[in-house]
Amino acid sequence: MSDQQPESPDRDNTVDEFDQMVAEESDRDPDLAVIEAGSRTLRAQAGAPLGDPVPSRPEDPEVAKALLEVEQELATRWGETKLEPSVSRISALMDVLGEPQRAYPSIHITGTNGKTSTARMIEALLNAFELRTGRYTSPHVQSVTERISLDGAPISAERFIETYHDVKPYVEMVDAAEEYRLSFFEVLTGMAYAAFADAPVDVAVVEVGMGGSWDATNVIDGTVAVITPISLDHTDRLGTTPGEIAQEKGGIIKQDATVILAQQPVDAAQVLLKKAVEVDATVAREGMEFGVVSREVAVGGQMLTLRGVGGEYDGIFLPLYGAHMAHNAAVALAAVEAFFGIGGEHARELDGDTVRKAFASVTSPGRMEVVRRSPTVVLDAAHNPAGARVTAEAVTEAFGFSRLIGVVAASEGKDVKGVLEAFEPIFAEVVVTENTSHRAMGADELAAVAVEVFGPDRVQVEPRLDDALEAAVTLAEEEAEYGGAGVLVTGSVITVGEARLLFKRG
I want to staple 391 with a disulfide (CB 3.0 to 4.6 A). Which of 78, 221, 382, 405 is the partner? Predict the structure, then answer.
């Protein structure tokens, strides 16, 4: 892997700052002081994410071309919906890469809904406590480079390309030796783990792709295992009850780990607690050892008081909407406390000001994200009935629209009727459409389901997403009395990502 360090805008100043940092650490072991100072310098160079947290296509045509070539090569592999339940190929890749996933401790996250937002909150907290982080999440909203982040920001297109070419020879070695080639997701997972080791990071925050036991990410030994709420999704692969799904997701719970358990259906909780006992893991349960003490709607988000495993934290502003985001925050806080050893032998708590600063900085693109005003347009990636229900509650609470128009495009194989039923009480009308994914459900097929739920008078069909967005905005604006009208775009991450691009360009 490359050991090239990022260029500094002012190399002399950076060297001076580095020397000063080493001098400040003079009472420690000199080698450790240099390592710590180097880490702090890299963090300072990276800085906090600025502007839009989602990267756009590279402006340099050569870089854009190289990234496209990488994406096209990755696209020749099994997609994320074609799986062979095994970690043998990713284990083989880790072996030939020198086990990069062992170079840092990890926080591993599974569940049905809330994984990415929770990962972003954990990352923000760790960054606030001056740890270098690597975050691996999926799917991406707009650019594949979003999936691999360092210090709270997606890696650059140049670094993504470099990492791919670094691991490509080893990927081809494994491809030649295994019955099946490595999948798209397996290659990206290998790239993420290699990039984190190369950085290097102090801790990795890793979201599973699907399930847990045989997910490609599950070659790490997460010292903290986080399980967000489990509900029905991917039932053809994971099981038809929360308990069956929990059996698979519980595979990320490793020997002697700490498990942070969000509120769960009873059968799922029983399965997960049994698994924790089997491997001598310590469990902290939302609603018991930690949770949301209070929450109030605020301008641009909500004010929270959270109880962690080590103490209570008040005056937290979270710039995200909905009760589900408050619960994600409680889970994230408990996970970071557990990572620092709080709540067990250490009866202490995190610095409250740092916690507040971290939560105030959180973003979660495509999750209850406002991309336009007058009328207000909200994007949310809800794609299953449980996610749709919490989104419907959050929209009602945070915005109180007098008239809300839905724009929905979904993927084949999803419980679209359940999603539409969850939104029916809050949508005055719905515009059904389709995104550009090869897995997209056709607009006419989706419309047939929508008519069953809404009736024909409340359903409009627009096969093109841009036309659907324009139609929805027009419907929201068409009568003056509806000054508080809005639009919610939802149904899948792909739909939200494409809508986000259209609004950002508009």
Answer: 382
Q: What is the pLDDT of residue 439?
A: 85
Structure tokens at 434: 């389709």
Q: Could you write out the DSSP letters of every residue in 178-197? A: SSSPPPHHHHHHHHHHHHHH
Distance CA 235, CA 255 (A): 27
**3-class SS at 106?**
strand
Q: What is the spatial distance between Cα 311 and Cα 303, in angstroms, rounded to a whole number?
A: 17
CA atoms of 129 and 192, how far apart (whole Å): 22
Judge contact between 115 and 109, C-beta under 8 A.
Answer: yes
Between CA 229 and CA 218 the distance in angstroms is: 19
Tens-place pLDDT, residues 342-382: 975 556 889 999 999 999 999 988 889 999 988 999 999 99
Strand order in the sheet with 376-379: 369-372, 376-379, 485-490, 403-408, 429-432, 459-461
Q: Is the Cβ–Cβ distance between 296 and 302 less than 8 Å?
A: yes
The 10s digit of each residue's pLDDT in 91-105 is 999 999 999 999 999
Put the strands of the sheet holding 153-154 in their side by side order: 153-154, 148-150, 133-136, 203-207, 106-110, 224-227, 258-261, 282-285
